[in-house]
Amino acid sequence: MSWGLRNRLDRVLPGLPNGTGSVMFAIDHGYFMGPTSGLENPRETIVPLLPHADSLMLSRGILQNSIPKRTNIPIVLRVSSGNSILNEDLSNEKLCVSIEDAIRLNVSAVAFSIYIGGAYEHQTIVEFSKLVNDAHSFGIPVLAVTAVGKDMNRDLRYLSLASRIAVELGADIVKTYYCEGFSDLIAACPVPVVIAGGKKVPELDALKFARNAISDGAAGVDMGRNIFQSDSPENMIQAVRSVVVQGVDPKEAYEQYKSSL
Ligand code: R5P
Known about the structure:
By secondary structure, the chain is of the alpha/beta class. The protein has helices spanning 3-12, 30-33, 42-46, 60-66, 99-104, 121-137, 156-169, 182-187, 203-215, 225-228, 233-244, 250-259, and strands at residues 22-26, 55-58, 75-78, 80-81, 94-95, 109-116, 142-148, 173-176, 193-196, 220-223. The structure holds ribose-5-phosphate (R5P).
C-alpha cells in the first residue's frame, strides 16, 4: 500500500492504528432520495455535528454547497449515482464523478455502490473495478457500498458474498450491514469493514448493534439516519461515538443521550 493511500485510509478511519472504532457520518442519502427527512436543510443539520465525526460521506453537491471550506474533516465522496427513489430498481448506477474532480475537492476516499444479485450487478462491478484502477493510481482509497438484490435477505449469506466480492475487486473499505454471525463476515473480508445504520430504529437499539459490530471486528460505523433522524442528532452522534470509539456500554451511552435531551 502506498504512503498516500495508507495516510488517507488512516485519516478516514483514525481508530485503525489503535484498534478502536471510527465514526463516519453518512449524509449522502439525497443523491437518490432528495430532501430526506432530517436532512432537509443539510448545512443546518450537519455543521454542528462535524466536531463529533471522524469523517463525512456525502455527495459532491452537498460538499460544495453545505460544508464550510475551512474544515479539516476527511471527506469520503460518493462517486456513483444514476437512480431516484421514483424508480423501482435502484441498482442502475455508474461512475458519475471523475477522479480529477475528486482530487480537486481534496477528498480522502471515494465511495461507489455495487449491487450484488441486482439487475445491474455486472455494470456496477465493472465500473467499480475501473474506479479502483483510477483511484489507486492517485493513492486514493475506495469504499465499496455493498448492496444486495432487492429480493435477497440482508443476512450473513448475501452480505458476506457481497463484501467478499468487493474485497476481491480491490475495495479498501467495505460498507455493509450488521447481521447475525457478523464475525464470520469479518473473517472472510480482509479489509476494514464499516456498518451502515439502515432505517431509523430506537436509539438504544442502534447503539447496541453498533457496539456488537465493533466487538465482532468492524472498523467503525458509517451511520446516517439513526443519527440525523434522531430527536437530538448532536446527542446521538456523541452517544454513537462513545460506544464505537471509547467502548462505553450502549445502555450507559443511552442514559447520557437521554439526560442531555
Ligand atoms: C445510502 O443511501 C447511503 O450509502 C447511506 O450512506 C448508507 O445507507 C448509510 O446510511 P444509513 O445509516 O442511513 O443506512
